[in-house]
Each structure stands twice: as structure tokens, then as C-alpha cells.
Write a structure and sequence with these properties.
- The chain is globular, with a radius of gyration of 25 Å.
- By secondary structure, the chain is α+β, with helices and mostly antiparallel strands.
- The two termini are 29 Å apart.
- It is 36% helix and 28% strand.
- The protein has 14 helices and 25 strands.
- Strand 20, helix 13 and strand 21 form a beta-alpha-beta unit.
């Protein structure tokens, strides 16, 4: 581990982030520009994210499948809005096996088209509906400016694709998956997201409606952390996804898609991290508890390690790591596990053996304030409660930070001042694509979402001054 201190967040947030991802061994740069290697510690975090989401998907009737990485170019061209939205980001294969291909292949940027084609073959009758399939995999989007986890050419994600008999069922599915993402973010990641609807300008290419969960990062910028799209009948008509209804009439299906990616790892880093490193939410942390034995003499080692083994056995229900390295000091170990964000550190030394105690150090509260001494007896129950406390504290702290930096400006001039300071603006908004584009051009802020939770009533649109019936969030974003 590099012992050099991280660049402070307040000094250079971007440099802090890049250093932290690499030094904490979450990911590294690949030899291909814009690609990343996810290291075992980062992949373990992603596996925990997968488990938390996958169990929620299956509980709501979804099943997993796998679809091809390569998509015929003609498939993307069938849905006009879709191909226009993705064409700048496409990676195209023109040679295979040493020969020029008859038709170029796209390395999937998303799978609506190939899955739509398969659904057209599988769905014949209303009895075949709904189809509720998710896939875990990787996609490629040729981004110009990249950053580890947040925006890379290749990234990992899940993408759900469903087909339904009615528009009501499709909308219910779209909203249900948004609710699942919201619950995951709050309950598992302690990331306080705002669920809402995307504007017409910001919606997914080919969707009728797009929904999003938006999160505020530690530098006050917004991050789109997960999306759910009602595709209407756009892809069903492009790929002839039809079924015979109960009256024996041929109907087009109504489809949805939804996804959350390794970008969410970036959300966890930037929501909770500090100048000492990562702070992992306990429910997702690859290592929840690290035990550091402390001894100076060989005669102390045997007794200390026996106590360590006993404590580890009692903590079998948790993800535990014993750091018994002898070539580095306890202080070095403390710094390393702080950097890597382990929620709880247990220290056991000769004095603890005498008193029948262990020292607990919370990662979410730095220094002496986060340290306590507890009985070794019932250590499992103590650790369980402590991890729950840390999880709740992280969510409360992140929510407070977010709410302190959301403002309601009285006019557009104040709006621009708040955005210039990287705050969020919560304003009355009358939908207008041209006005939205002007705001983006003048302030670099985008409409993050029109939240599902609306105050009711009406007010003056922050830009046009016209009567508006909805409020929206604007912010600079990743």
C-alpha cells in the first residue's frame, strides 16, 4: 500500500477520487484507453451489490438470462430514436476471422434491440406474458472523457427487459423497478437518492418515459445512479413483438428496460469517503470487520492469537478479516484498513486479555471519538448492533449533507449563483426543451429529475416566469 497521504477532497476532489480508487485497490487503468480493471476488492463490492439487487429482482418474479455481446447493425437502425441516441458511442466490428463481415456488428451499448428480436420469437399469446428477464453483463459505450467506475468505455451492469399486455402493466413495472433501486440505495448503500422522472430532453433514446434515482456526491455534483424506462410500444413495433389476446386479436406488447451499473460503486465512494479513504456501508462492505492482533513478545502472541481465533469464530456470521501480518506495524494496518473503508476494526492485545475486552474502532467516526472498549462476551451481538448503528449514521449524515446543499432560489439570477457554487436548485419548472438547453448552456446545469414526491399547487417557472405545476431539481452532474 502507498503510505503517501491522499490529496484532500477540499484541495482537488477529482484527484482525491482517482487516487482513492487505485490505492484502495478497487480498480486500475487498463492498457486500452478508457477501460478499467476491477480488482478483487472492487469486484467483491460489486458482487455484494449484485446479491442485494438480484434477491430483490427474484422476489418480484424476475429471472436471469444471457444475450449476445454482438448485435447486427440493422437491429439498431430499426428504432430510429434509439440509433440516433447511441450512434456517437458505438463500437463497430467490421472484420471477423480475417474477412470483412457482410453486415457490421455493434458491441452492445445496451440490449433492447437483440432482446426485442428474441421476444418476437418467444411471445405468441397473452398466456406468454408477462416476460420478466434480467441479464448481468458488460456493455461498451465509446465515451470521450472517462473516469474509473463513473464513466468507462466498458462497464458492468444489470439490464432488465420486460414485456407486458397492457400499458398500465408496463408503467407499473417501470415504477416498481425504480422503487427497488431506491430501496437498495437507501437500505444497502446508505445513499440518499431522489427518485423522479427525466425530462423529455434527458430521457433514454427510444423511451416514452424515463425514471431515475439521483444522488448528491461529496462535491455536490449529481450522479444518475440507476434508471428505469417505459418503452411503450416503440421497440415492440420495431421488432414485431406481438401476441394474440383473449379475443384472438393480434396486439403489440408494451415493454420496459431498467439498469444499474458499476457506476454505483463511484456513488458509494463519493457519498461516504473522506480524506482518510473509503467508508464502506456495512451491508455492502467486502470486509465488515477487521481484527488486528497486537503483541510485542512471542509469549504474548500465542495467547493473543488464541483470543483472536475465538472472536473470529464467534463472528462467523460476518465478513471478517484477521490481519496477522508481522512485517508491518499495527499503525500501518490501521491506516490501510481506514483507507479501504472497513466499517469496524477490532483490536486485541495483552491488556484486553487481562480485562476480557476488545477495542472497537468505528470507521464512520474518526479518531478517539469512534473508539470504545467492550466485553469479549456476547461480541457477536455487540458487533451486529454496532454495524447497524454505522449503517444508519452513514445514511443520516449523507442525507443531512444533501439537504443542506439543496436550495430554492427566488429568481433565475439566484439560481445561477447557487449552481456556480455547485449547489442543487429545487424550482418550479414548466417543461420546455429550448429553455432547458439554454439553462445548460448558461450554467452547465441539467435537469436531474422531476421528483415523484411533488408539493402540489403551482408557482412561477424559474426560467420563463410562466405558471408551472411541477417542481424539478437542477444541478451540475457527472
Amino acid at each position: 500500500m502507498d503510505e503517501k497521504k491522499l490529496t484532500p477532497k477540499s484541495e482537488n476532489y477529482s484527484e482525491w477520487y482517482n487516487q482513492l480508487v487505485q490505492r484502495a485497490e478497487l480498480a486500475d487503468y487498463a492498457p486500452v484507453r478508457g477501460c478499467m480493471v476491477v480488482r478483487p476488492y472492487g469486484w467483491s463490492l460489486w458482487e455484494n451489490i449484485q446479491d442485494a439487487l438480484d434477491s430483490r429482482f427474484k422476489a418480484t418474479g424476475h429471472v436471469n438470462a444471457a444475450f449476445p455481446l454482438f448485435i447486427p447493425m440493422s437491429f439498431l437502425e430499426k428504432e430510429k430514436e434509439h440509433v440516433e441516441g447511441f450512434s456517437p458511442e458505438l463500437a463497430v466490428v467490421t472484420i471477423g476471422g480475417g474477412s470483412v463481415l457482410e453486415e457490421p456488428l455493434i458491441v452492445r451499448p445496451t440490449s433492447e434491440t437483440i432482446i426485442g428480436y428474441m421476444y418476437s420469437k418467444w411471445i405468441q399469446s397473452y398466456r406468454d406474458l408477462p416476460v420478466l428477464i434480467n441479464q448481468w453483463g458488460n456493455v461498451v459505450r465509446w465515451e470521450m472523457r472517462t473516469r474509473l467506475f463513473l464513466r468507462t468505455l466498458e462497464f458492468y451492469w444489470q439490464e432488465g427487459h420486460t414485456a407486458h399486455a397492457t400499458p398500465e402493466e408496463a408503467e407499473e413495472e417501470t415504477r416498481q423497478m425504480l422503487d427497488i433501486y431506491t430501496d437498495f440505495a437507501l437500505s444497502e448503500a446508505a445513499v440518499p437518492v431522489i427518485p423522479g422522472r427525466k425530462s423529455e430532453t434527458e430521457k433514454f433514446a427510444g423511451a416514452v418515459r424515463s425514471y431515475t434515482i439521483e444522488a448528491m456526491m461529496g462535491d455536490k455534483k449529481a450522479l444518475q445512479a440507476g434508471t428505469s424506462h417505459n418503452l411503450g410500444q416503440n421497440f415492440a413495433k420495431a421488432f414485431d413483438i406481438q401476441y394474440l389476446d383473449e379475443n384472438n386479436t393480434l396486439q403489440h406488447c408494451w415493454t420496459t428496460s431498467w439498469g444499474l451499473s458499476t457506476r454505483f460503486i463511484g456513488a458509494i465512494i463519493m457519498t461516504h469517503g473522506d480524506d482518510q479513504g473509503l467508508i464502506m456501508p456495512p451491508r455492502l462492505a467486502p470486509i465488515q470487520v477487521v481484527i488486528v492482533p497486537i503483541f510485542r513478545k512471542d509469549e504474548e502472541k500465542e495467547k493473543v492469537m488464541a483470543a483472536v481465533d475465538q472472536v473470529k469464530a464467534e463472528l462467523a456470521d460476518f465478513r471478517v478479516k484477521v490481519d496477522d501480518r508481522t512485517e508491518v506495524t499495527p499503525g500501518f494496518k490501521f491506516n490501510e484498513w481506514e483507507l479501504r473503508g472497513v466499517p469496524l476494526r477490532l483490536e486485541i492485545g495483552p491488556k484486553d486479555l487481562e480485562k476480557g475486552t476488545v477495542a472497537l474502532a468505528r470507521r464512520d467516526i474518526p479518531g478517539r471519538d469512534g473508539k470504545s472498549f467492550v466485553p469479549q462476551e456476547n461480541i457477536s451481538a455487540t458487533v451486529s448492533e454496532m454495524l447497524k448503528t454505522i449503517q444508519a449514521n452513514l445514511l443520516e449524515k449523507a442525507t443531512r449533507f444533501r439537504d443542506e446543499h439543496i436550495h430554492e432560489p427566488k429568481d433565475y439570477e439566484e439560481f445561477k449563483e447557487i449552481i456556480a457554487e455547485d449547489g442543487w436548485c429545487y424550482v418550479w419548472w414548466k417543461p420546455d426543451a429550448e429553455n432547458e438547453a439554454r439553462i445548460k448552456e448558461e450554467t452547465k446545469a441539467t435537469l436531474r429529475c422531476i421528483p415523484l414526491d411533488q408539493p402540489g399547487g403551482s408557482g412561477k417557472c424559474i426560467f420563463s416566469g410562466e405558471e408551472a405545476t411541477e417542481k424539478a431539481y437542477f444541478a451540475k452532474a457527472y
